[in-house]
Specification:
The chain has 262 residues and is an alpha+beta fold. 39% of the residues lie in helices and 21% in strands. The chain binds zinc ion.
Length: 262
């Protein structure tokens, strides 16, 4: 499992490093591979992307109805994900032999399916290769400004930049995503001191996100201090006075928080 991750990372990074551009030129990759990519409107309740193997050729379909335009951060991640299905041996062979059914991929969410997780990880490494990313994390002191700098630098979404940062950044963080007052998923750096949320279902009331959901008015974009005991499970007695920072960004009834310590 670990080896497979390393294999995927190396594969994606070798492909990215074949091009000089910092913003991985997906168009060129597609062209060099002779792949056909179709951007079209496939409806709102369908998929972000889908890779098909027909008559001896691969084609990738990208759904513009879900914000996956050719040049958008989301569209780029979706194409990166579909390229994962093409480049990762087990996916490609599966698609060719019909063992892996063409499936509707949905990106920008926590993936529970192994194949989808692998394709997302491939996209993440392809768009934000470690060799480049790990230097850029030192260009600014850590706060939300650094995540936003990385997001622009690699033309990815804030969530994608935060995920990569949680994985290989220089400061451990937790990312929490909520919708309508409920926790949808959370994820943290390997060395983040707490692994579990105190409130796994409903957003912790004494958090920035919790305050937002109590009375949704205007969207927020702010950093505040929060108590570890208010949001994490298994806080030791000695750490009862420990504080963290939470930066919460909202859009209608959706919210993303990034949490970090000193
Ligand atoms: Zn997929």
């Amino acid at each position: 499992m670990i080896n497979k991750r390393i294999g995927i990372k190396n594969l994606a990074e070798i492909i990215a490093s074949e091009y000089q551009e910092k913003i991985t030129p997906l168009d060129k990759i597609v062209e060099d591979e002779g792949l056909r990519v179709f951007y079209d409107s496939y409806g709102k309740n369908t998929f972000d992307g889908m890779t098909l193997y027909e008559n001896g050729r691969f084609s990738i379909h990208i759904n513009t109805d879900l914000g996956n335009s050719h040049d958008s951060a989301k569209g780029r991640f979706t194409l990166g994900h579909e390229l994962g299905h093409y480049y990762i041996d087990s996916h490609r062979i599966g698609l060719k032999k019909g063992l892996l059914k063409p499936h509707p991929s949905r990106t920008n969410r926590q993936q529970f399916n192994k194949i989808e997780r692998e394709a997302d990880f491939f996209a993440s490494c392809l768009l934000m290769p470690e060799t480049r990313f790990s230097k850029d994390v030192y260009k600014k002191p850590f706060d939300i400004g650094l995540i936003d700098f990385l997001k622009e630098e690699y033309k990815v979404s804030r969530t994608a930049a935060a995920f990569r940062f949680a994985d290989i950044g220089n400061h451990s963080i937790m990312i929490i995503y909520g919708e309508a007052g409920k926790i949808k998923w959370y994820n943290c750096s390997e060395d983040f001191p707490y692994k579990y949320l105190l409130h796994e279902k409903n957003v912790a009331p004494n958090s920035v996100m919790g305050e937002f959901f109590k009375d949704i008015t205007d969207d927020i974009f702010k950093t505040e201090e929060i108590w570890a005991v208010d949001i994490f499970k298994y806080v030791k007695d000695d750490d009862i006075n420990k504080k963290f920072f939470e930066h919460c960004i909202t859009f209608r009834n959706r919210a993303l928080s990034i949490v970090w310590g000193e």
